[in-house]
Amino acid sequence: MPLWPYPLVFAHRLGGALAPENTLAGLLIAARLGVRAVECDVKLSADGEPFLLHDDTLQRTTNGAGPARALTLAQLRELDAGSRFHAAFAGEALPLLEELATLCRSGGIQVNLEIKPCPGREAETGRVVARAARRLWQRAAVPPLLSSFSAEALHAARIAAPELPRGLLFDTVPANWRAQLDAVGALALHCHHASLNLALVESIHSAGYAVMAYTVNDVMEARLLQSWGVDMLCTDRPDRLGELQSRV
Ligand code: G3P
Ligand code: MG
């Protein structure tokens, strides 16, 4: 495998469990902890603008309700994405992809953009996010790593911005993982940490791919995965896993 340019530890959904997920408040908390890489979820507003949100619907993490894809970016930006986590974060907005890029580039933080399409918008989301990432990270020393559970979204991203590295996400690693990675030109396999073992990590490396494990919150588990050679760990507890960050 070629030299992998990303750090070991990625804060999941920007701030992990320490802040409202996928918010700039979380990113700032992670940055203050010394986190050098973050993962976040990107989808499209009704008017086709990329913004950060995990769920297809709004009610779990914001004061809105119903499908996120039904609202324009201006309507989404009126929502409070902080109060459901804690009153101290009241008024926190759903971030634009552009805001994330500005803050991460100025802070030297590497990014894994998980393309999280609303159902039926897989190819459009892959295309729009890849084009935006190309523009927003122009001339960056390390490009954003694009990932998705949707092969269709990654395929569209590949056509739109073939130079951006891609990772294919699995919950459980399927037997035909290599064919699936090849089909979207992925450089990395991303999967649930419980799906990995030493032999599988060695097979994936031997085939020339990097490995990301999510969501790893226990330091002993993280050390075991690191000892197997896992290249990236996505965690809700960047405060606990910070001590492992010395590799890159
Ligand atoms: O990218 C790793 C992880 O974020 C995938 O699962 O559901 O937290 O987006 P989820
Ligand atoms: Mg994610």
From TrEMBL:
| Xref: InterPro entries | GP_PDE_dom, PLC-like_Pdiesterase_TIM-brl
Single GO term (MF): glycerophosphodiester phosphodiesterase activity
EC number per UniProt: 3.1.4.46
Q: What class of enzyme is it?
A: hydrolase
GO-annotated biological processes? lipid metabolic process
**GP-PDE domain mapped to chain residues:** 7-245
The entry's keywords: Hydrolase
Q: Which top-level group of life is the source organism from?
A: Bacteria
Report what the protein is called. Glycerophosphodiester phosphodiesterase
**Which organism is this protein's natural source?**
Pseudogulbenkiania ferrooxidans 2002
Q: Read off the lineage from the record.
A: Bacteria, Pseudomonadati, Pseudomonadota, Betaproteobacteria, Neisseriales
